Batch of 2 targets.
Target 1
Amino acid sequence: MTCQNNIKFMQGNEAVAEAAILAGVRFFAGYPITPATEIAEILARKMPLVDGVFLQMEDEIASMAAVIGASMAGVKAMTSTSGPGFTLKQENLGYAAIVEIPCVVVDVQRGGPSTGLPTLPAQGDVMQARWGTHGDHPIVVLSPATVAEAFDLTVQAINLSELLRTPVILLSDAVVGHIREKVEIPSADSLKLIERKITNKSPEQYQPYVAGEDGVPEFAYRGKGYRYHITSNIHDEAGFPATNNHEVADSLLRRLHAKIDYYKDELTFYKEEQCADAEFLIIAYGCVARSAKEAVHDLRKEGIKAGLLQLQTLWPFPAEIVQKYCAGVKKVIVPEMNLGQLINEVKLNALNKDVIGVNRVDGRMITPQEIAEKVKEVK
Amino acid sequence: MAIVPNMPRSWRVETKPHKFCPGCGHGLVLKALGEAIDELDIQDRVVFGCDIGCSLLAWDFFNVDIVQTHHGRTTPVMTGIKRARPDRICIAYMGDGGGYAIGSQHLVNAATRNEKITAILVNNCNYGMTGGQMAPTTLPEMKTETTPYGRDVEETGYPTQGPEMVAAIAREGAYTARGTVANVRQLKNYLKKALQNQLEEKGFSFVEALSGCPTNWSTNAKATWAFLEENMTKYFKVGEVKVPVKEEE
């Protein structure tokens, strides 16, 4: 039987902070922004109690830079923000991607563009999370729909960033961040944690960007005598700039993508609800998946065979999963709190089925009724 | 007969009462600013820029041209307007986070270039809009939501002394001062001199206004005033810090 002490009633943002501490994050740098501020406030209290560092920086650019620095020193590091701050973090997100430094950025989405709707939910950052920085970088983006998922996916985000040596984004939203729900907190020793692969080579033998079969280089702590160079320029396996070497540039960029592809199965998370005999497939993520689940139940009561595919991994887009679930259905419905972002990826993988959006950008949740009505309308 | 309070001409009357919390100092700073604008008769030339945070609640306060920018970016946006249309009177209105943290580089560089704009910064020792986190101006040992054990100066440094910093980098012609909502007449005088400095194209002008935040300080009226007049003014000295040298007669 489960220990009652581990059952908690908490906010999504609180679950993110709890998960970060349990998963070994010992450095947090951030800047206050609604609706993500609770994560910083909770970690301001908790970090000193676990000998971790909480740092409030002068802005989001500096917060992201400090997080990368801490992770370079070998400490698991995280930051949290919302849309406008997420935009400021993009520059250093690209930096983390090319220097292959693990870190986690939590984006609790609110309505945009610009400062938009500061306290209201949206899902407008789906594409910013994927394509916000310049250059061809890969990224992993996970999106929770409940407080329990916020906890689990925070742990996964931290694990994946360590496994892949890449920045991972937890794309939450104002609903998931602020709603209070039951969550079961696992004990620290039952939690499966992944740590970055530390080299056992000597400083003389160590080449910082030589990768194994999985495409991920071994890590050597800074300040341990390895004296290697880290540069944001295209670099060779020794870590030095090779900005006129076309072969090095090509192989580095392709390897950054290949390592994400190598671990595709480990990083693809999704849930399904009554999909086995579904004729109408709803594909949803984040807070909207909550309404979609309810819509499926309501439609089934009326004898309409609806099913839900809830994507928890948004990027890399789980194309094969979507294709598999689209195969047997008549139509696909994609509700999103934006004017159509992930729907375009779904369209590419829906095997020529009709794909219909349900969109809302006024800061109000898409209701189960709206989704169910759309299914009945296109039936 | 209803009693109509005496409001500055440059205020937008239909937006009153204003949106700030009861006891907030912003209203007093904006009253002093409104009177200064009236006395200089520059209402039609003013472009009022406000930042993110509580200062943005001033977006409909005045009956003048108003711009609200991204966090910290009010100073460079006002710089752009002033450089493009030097006949405008550009005011960048911000909080301590906007001016001393996320936008500190803009304050420093506007002062270095001696931009002919007026920056007004309201110092209330915390980030108000987001619920009371540490600001660059949070006093040593002061508890906020992100300094739950009190601000430790070894970890987070000492509170920023803005007017002194600006005075150290600004060139001749710049005007910097620190006023307080506890002395609105003096504050209005400083704001008027700062705007006058812009009108005379002498240089950058910067006024910090000490202000109260009873909502996030969790203080009643008496304790708010005590914190402002005792704790804050001990660290943040009220007065003019740098004034342009008078030209020889």
Target 2
Amino acid sequence: MQHLFLSPSLVVEFLLNGVIFFLMSVAFVATLPFLSQRYKISQSFTYSVQKNTHLVATLLTLVLFFKLLLLPFFLYNLDKLSLFLSGAMCAAGVVSANSYGGVLVVVKLTTPLLLMLYALLYKESQMQKSHYLSRKRHILFIGVYMLVVIEMILSYLYYTHIPLNQTLSCCSTLYTNSSVHNRSTLSLLLPFYGVYGAIVFFTLQRKRVVVALLSLVFLYTSYEAITYFFSSYIYELPSHKCPYCILGSDYNYVGYLIYALLFFATFYALKDAFFKEETSYKRVLFFYTSFVFVLCYFFIHYLIKNGTFLW
Amino acid sequence: MIECRAVTKIYKGKEIVKELNLCVEEGAFVVIEGESGGGKSTLLNMLALLVQPTSGEILIEGENIALLSDYHSSQYRKNFVGYLSQEYYLFENLSVYENLLAPLVVQDLSFGEINKRIEQKLQLAHIANKRDAKVAHLSGGEKQRVVLAKALLNNPKLLLCDEPTANLDDINTQHFIALVEQLQKEGSTLIVVTHDKRLKHLESVSRYYKMHNGMLQPRS
Amino acid sequence: MLTKLHFALVLLLRYKNKHLLLFFLMSFLVSVVSSVFFISSSLQKDIAQTLDAQADITLQRFEAGRVLNAPQSWVDDALDIEGVSQAQGRVYGMHFYEPLEEYFLVYGVDLYDTQVVQELQKVVDTLDTEKFLERKNMLIGSGVKRFFDEFAYTDYYIFRPPDRSREKIYIYGVLDKQTDVLSNDMVLMSMQNAKKVLGVEDDFVTDVVIKVANPKELTTIVNKLKMLHFNVRIITKEDIQRYYKNIFNYKGGLFLALYIVTLLSFMLILYQRYSLTKSDELQEVAILRLSGWKIDEIVWLKLFENFVVVVSAFMSGVMVAFVYVEFFGGGVLQALFLGDENLHMCTSLSVDFDSASLFGLFLFFTLPYLGAVVLPLYRATTKDAMEILR
């Protein structure tokens, strides 16, 4: 176990997560005075804690910047770890090494999303002359902080529970044995395109809350569609179904582009639901359409090149 | 209109400003004098939002500026108030021109507009000939004029001056007096802390105050 | 944005002296770590290339927790398995030179047989076999040569086998420097002489190496070999590759983990610089606040300044490391990976790195650096400006 922990890229990741956790903890301590209602009563108390909001915002912007850089690095490390673990051919095997892996990936994707929303909330509140000491924003931050604490605990549990003397499953075992694998293509693509169509329709109708909810549904349908349909066309192999292998150098790291488009599309869809002023509908359309376009490109390219489907 | 209501500043356990009340109408020219350590500079610093009061309210057009968000307080400092400090808070290693860049680069102005404004204010402060000189190489009076040019950069509605003529010679003092009278005619509000009789006895001065032990007392 | 950038660069250039010390310190730290990783990746590449030419499977006799000499008959047993294209017995062992407490590897080769290990085949191909076998000759690695030269063994060396006899073996030539990573401390001789020197009986070999025709059938062949004898231990080429990869990975990571102490000390210096009450940095921040700058604009400016310093320091550190490893062989840092139980190496390294690792190193330095700057910076930006300036 110690040998695994001492892989240089993991050492870097642990150090940086430690730095992030430290900065977030400082921000957390600075937020605590705002949870009491004292600032509404005592003016001098307000003056003294006013500056804390600046600290919190500065630290969170920096943490967000770090997290966005670390996210692809984390995924890359998962992929690299597969070289040291017997049986795992890509990140899929590494993630499924124990029950904490999948949850850790989801948490790591959610935290930057929430941090981006918080940063925008802060920026918006700065434009208001009053209410910038809003209790709601600080409570949201506490939620994000709790998520970071959970992430630290999950990371520890995940890495310390990776079985080193056991052969792990590779993606072909994992995904061909799942129940989704046996579903028809139509049952995979219909929800995918259906939800996408609904997102486009409701975005043009400016129904922001509906779009935000649909974006969360779309995360799930995209995951299924990529894993069990589109990925095969990227790998050009009907038996190869995996959402992680597309992150590898063999496929020109196209996975990072695909997931980045989906990430930002989800962010912009959620963003407008939180704010009074609606600004992002064009970006929502752009990112979702680009995401769908990139996936369809591989499918169409294969079809034209080989004249056949990969059923 | 500027209003201070029961403004108090405690610094290191000492009450520098005590329950200060002040009301200044738009376009007024207020002179404050008093012995050193009386709290005059602290009052100006609070009005310029460079120091936070411990308690009380500072209302500018009905709004408590002490509670403004960082965005709005910087807007206030940029667009509303000009501060002519007694000390030269300048970047010693930068030239006069580069020092005047600092307040303007955060204003969403183009390079052309920035250059034009800097030239204008350097002329106004009679320091245009030292545009490219390093601040560290300037005399006290020249630095004072740079600080004046910087204070006037954003055409402030409220000009706060702390001993503005302390390091100026007679000619430059005359220039400064002409400038403040001009500004007052244009509708700016002036609050000047000074011991200089030439400033105190100007006809355009609307109010006198004496500050003693952190408290403000009107004078005739 | 452009005007802010312009001002940021003006400030950076006018006050560059205060950043110089940090720049040099940072470059030094980066160059040390980069050198270590360049050496590591270069050695790994060398080893990978050499290992590629090794046998697919190695069979050993393993009893009571010890590796013993394997019977020569195992070679034929292996050849009987479908899919095995070549099998050969190997004789090798460590010879201990007591005065220096150094080991070197004695390796026996059947010069009339096709070698399973490709590197050895290359050596055998260039050898005049008849002349080599005229008398008891040996080929030595460059590390062995240096050791022999030092002790004036210019013509021959007398081995002391386990039966306390004396075997005089003549020095025929030196092995190619290209294979130094594996052959530096190797002595190559005929199978017969090696058995005498190492005390291996005639019907026995140290182990058996096997080549398979189709690598995809490796697992099946390994299973069949396991069924041959109860006391057989099997090592595949993949196992060895993973072993070396783990060693380098572990050593590299251990170095980095220990290096964090150095890095943290550096961050403390940074932290100190921004938190001293009357420091130049705080004065600068206060003047900007006076000029109407927002807190996040000041933080942006300072982070930009430091980002430029850290990026340029990183690039210069990496370049210094590149020159150090490529042209000066990495010097003392090589020892981190190569150790010194065996004869000392003189490998020439060619830098080989991947961009993802370099990016990881960049994050390792940049993010803690920026984190160490921003925390005390907050105190400067939110303190009353006049408190700092007075």
